[in-house]
């Protein structure tokens, strides 16, 4: 396997053994950016000089005293709503074309302390919403499996860059599915951790009570390695949880035997019936888990529409509040999709918001009750393969509930893991969720499924994809 197609865990082991140079690895990733990003548009800013300097420093430090973490010398990227000292953080908006932060976001600082190599800032939807848009400062990201197709959003550049081999891991943000959506459509793993586990200080807000930061990578193990560096209390984030961080690798490889898995069958078979390939992935996952010794249960749950409706009103109102000043000052600087969403948010009443928050508490109690009887729940990550990028409706699927919002609404950790391919040879995914702060069990369940299937062995063939596109 080429250097740029290694997992974080593989590259980390080779670096620690002196068999791989962080500089070689970084140069291989930079070469793929130069060769393919003109078609994929994963990056807003490529920090080539910074990356090479980081890699050289990592190489010297490792030679002198060994790696300080499994991420030492690993090329990563940051979604472009995450502050980076001295580097443009534009949030894909004309409002922020001159925004050069004076300090790093806490999550960016944490990865830097772990010794990562910063490759650059990754494409997003405007202020993490309203895409794909073609009237923003940079073009939207395209799916590396077929560039005529969408990546989902809003962590679109991160979702595209990882399977393309431009980075080994990256950060996304997730307010209603913005980590798990791109993970599902781009064939990678993405976890939205528990609300409050990873600091949001220095990250542009979307909806305050729904926003999460989390890792995206090729495998579950890679995401666990990244979360180990990211998790922890930060007084700069008022929602940050002050609690010990467990060892996410300790039980990662202990298998699925004895796990109790609750299937949210109503959601993907009735409330939003998924495409046959997605259903096949879910059915296969159930069989795989049963063969590994897990206990499968069907659980009763409220309609997916209830979770989606509560989340929509909360998200819409909080986003409108976050960017009210910009809208009043210069609405013309927003792209049409996001401006429409902010205008819509101004029509959400205080009664709408309060009722949505009341319903939120009821649904949180329901999901907590379900998870009291099982270790993880299982449903779809996305209802189908990636759509054509120019066919995504202006309001996305506002009339249809998504599968990711319920776990933003409840704040519970959720992960998307590849479960196969559809008829267009594009990835499909399952989604697993667990109790608050039980990411270790979530990683264990996801890793067991990966190890029992072969979906992590297939990468997009970029040259053929670009020729076809």
How would you describe the overall organization of this protein?
With 469 residues, the chain is α/β, with parallel strands linked by helices. It has a single domain, classed as Amidase signature (AS) domain (Amidase signature (AS) enzymes, Alpha-Beta Complex). It has 16 helices and 11 strands. It has an 11-stranded mixed beta sheet, with helices on both faces. Strand 2 (75-79), helix 4 (106-113) and strand 3 form a beta-alpha-beta unit. Helix 10 packs across helix 12 (336-345). The protein is globular and about 55 Å long.
- The termini sit apart by 25 Å
CATH topology: the name is Amidase signature (AS) enzymes
Regions with little confidence, pLDDT below 50 for 5+ residues: 464-469
SS summary, helix count: 16
Given helix and strand content, the structural type is: alpha/beta
Percent of residues in helices: 25-40%
Shape: globular
Second CATH tier, the architecture = Alpha-Beta Complex
Radius of gyration: 20 Å
**CATH class group:** Alpha Beta
Number of domains: 1
Strand order of the largest sheet: 1-3-2-4-6-5-10-11-9-7-8
- Tell me the name of the CATH homologous superfamily: Amidase signature (AS) domain
Q: What is the average per-residue confidence, as pLDDT, rounded to a whole number?
A: 96
How many strand units? 11
């Amino acid at each position: 396997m080429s250097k740029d197609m290694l997992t974080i865990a593989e590259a980390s082991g080779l670096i620690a053994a002196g068999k791989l140079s962080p500089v070689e690895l970084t140069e291989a990733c930079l070469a793929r950016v130069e060769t393919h990003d003109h078609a994929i548009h994963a990056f807003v800013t490529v920090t080539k000089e910074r990356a090479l300097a980081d890699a050289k420093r990592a190489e010297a430090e490792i030679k002198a005293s060994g790696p300080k973490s499994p991420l030492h010398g690993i090329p990563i990227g940051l979604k472009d709503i995450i502050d980076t000292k001295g580097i443009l953080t534009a949030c894909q908006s004309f409002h922020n074309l001159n925004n050069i932060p004076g300090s790093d976001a806490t999550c960016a600082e944490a990865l830097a302390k772990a010794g990562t190599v910063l490759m650059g800032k990754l494409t997003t939807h405007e202020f993490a919403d309203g895409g794909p848009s073609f009237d923003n400062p940079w073009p939207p990201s395209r799916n590396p499996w077929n560039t005529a197709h969408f990546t989902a959003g809003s962590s679109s550049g991160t979702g595209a860059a990882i399977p393309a081999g431009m980075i080994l891991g990256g950060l996304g943000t997730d307010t209603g599915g913005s980590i798990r959506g791109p993970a599902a459509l781009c064939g990678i793993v993405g976890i939205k951790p528990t609300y409050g586990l990873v600091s949001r200080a220095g990250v542009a807000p979307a909806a305050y009570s729904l926003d999460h930061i989390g890792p995206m990578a090729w495998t579950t193990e890679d995401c666990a390695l990244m979360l180990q560096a990211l998790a922890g209390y930060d007084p700069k984030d008022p929602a940050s949880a002050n609690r010990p961080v467990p060892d996410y690798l300790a039980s990662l490889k202990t298998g699925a035997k004895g796990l109790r898995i609750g299937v949210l069958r109503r959601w993907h078979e009735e409330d939003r019936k998924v495409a046959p390939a997605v259903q096949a992935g879910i059915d296969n996952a159930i069989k795989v888990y049963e063969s590994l010794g897990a206990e499968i249960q069907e659980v009763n749950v409220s309609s997916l529409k209830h979770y989606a409706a509560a989340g929509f009103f909360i998200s819409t109102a909080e986003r409108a509040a976050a960017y009210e000043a910009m809208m009043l000052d210069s609405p013309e600087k927003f792209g049409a999709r996001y401006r429409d969403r902010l205008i819509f948010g101004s029509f959400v009443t205080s009664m709408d918001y309060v009722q949505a928050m009341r319903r939120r508490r009821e649904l949180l109690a329901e999901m907590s009750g379900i998870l009291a009887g099982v270790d993880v729940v299982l449903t779809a990550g996305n209802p189908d393969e990636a759509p054509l990028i120019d066919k995504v409706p202006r309001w996305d699927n506002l009339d249809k509930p998504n599968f990711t919002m319920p776990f933003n609404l409840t704040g519970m950790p959720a992960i998307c893991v590849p479960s196969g391919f559809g008829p267009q040879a594009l990835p499909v995914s399952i989604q697993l969720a667990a109790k608050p702060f039980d990411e270790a069990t979530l990683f264990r369940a996801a890793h067991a499924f990966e190890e029992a299937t072969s979906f992590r062995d297939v990468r997009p063939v970029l040259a053929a994809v670009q020729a076809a596109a």
